[in-house]
Amino acid sequence: MDYNIPDYMMKSINEYVQDGKPLGGFLRAVFANDLIKAVTGADEDNYKLLKSYVLYVHWEVPASCHGSYEIVKKWIRKKREEQNENKGND
After folding, report:
1. Number of other CB atoms surrounding residue 30 within 10 Å
2. Is the Cβ–Cβ distance between 5 and 56 less than 8 Å?
3. Whole-model pTM?
4. pLDDT (0 to 100) of residue 88
């Protein structure tokens, strides 16, 4: 499915999902399932694509990395711990 999410936003999403890189306000709100902050924090282009972001997150990323702000924090912490473990194994 083509979600029409801009490349620069997909880059941020992928860096968060793969590496635990913190998200900006709009994407953090989307991943935290905070509709009010997502709508009010979106620029005009991303506002128009909000449904695409929600569907992408729901269908394409691990369920364990979205749903609340606490889940987002835990995901970032988990990914940082994994990176630290991998550095220790090098």
Report:
1. 26
2. yes
3. 0.93
4. 75
Task: State pLDDT tens for residues 23-63.
Answer: 999 999 999 999 999 999 999 999 999 999 999 999 999 99
DSSP for the chain? Answer: ------HHHHHHHHHHHHH-PPP-HHHHHHHTT-HHHHHHH--HHHHHTHHHHHHHHHHHS-GGG-SSHHHHHHHHHHHHHHHHHHHHT-
Q: How high is the pLDDT of residue 26?
A: 98
Other CB atoms within 10 Å distance of the CB of residue 85? 9
d(Cα 35, Cα 21) in Å, to the nearest integer? 21
Residues 6+ apart with CB under 8 A from 42: 26, 50
Do the Cβ atoms of 16 and 22 come closer than 8 Å? yes
